[in-house]
Amino acid sequence: MRYEATRSRVEDYFDRTATKTWERLTSDAPVSKIRETVRQGRDQMRERLLARLPSDLTGRRILDAGCGTGMVTEIMAARGAEVVAVDISPQLVEIARSRLTPGLAARVTFHAGDMLSADLGRFDHVLAMDSLIYYHAHDIRNALSVLGERTQENIVFTVAPRTPLLMMMWNAGKLFPRADRSPTMIPHAPKSLSRELEDIGTLADLGRVSKGFYISQALEFRV
Fold this sequence. Notes:
This protein has helices spanning 2-17, 19-25, 33-50, 71-78, 90-99, 137-148, 164-173, 190-197, and strands spanning 61-65, 82-87, 108-112, 125-128, 155-161, 187-188, 202-211, 214-222. 40% of the residues lie in helices and 22% in strands.
């Protein structure tokens, strides 16, 4: 039940607590200096993950797993992909739907729900930017195993890297009452995660993006 419990906390946070924050962060609206570093870091990570997909995505079916407000969805659809954009937060899905360029609407199918749902179908590629950062290694293994069975080529995703700063934040977060916590990022070392996955596929380290208050590790999984 650990995956379901974490998913429920993530849904509650993004759909009830932080919707307006993420709507603003992923727009052109002015933000604080701290949030500007997060915005810049996410921009860099988005480019890094998209670089692992073909430049021409015509005819490719891609899962944007944890699509948020739809920035990656927009780019992939503009490059010709048929995109299935799913997020656990119905409010974020509606923001993504409203922001999508009308001429790309025929290429995108939006869903509010679990990114692992079999109802979403099969894919050529999966991109999961910062949507697995709250899960333990066992849950990431399960997610990649489930998605890998339905993915023809690669799954590119991110985790929170196991750095001294993030470990300090992770341990400090345990001191707050549960009601006051945002979902806690679970740090992972790529080598340890690779050992966790070695019997179901191969994991490649795509490097880390560290920009102010944004720190994330890019990885690529293939069955």
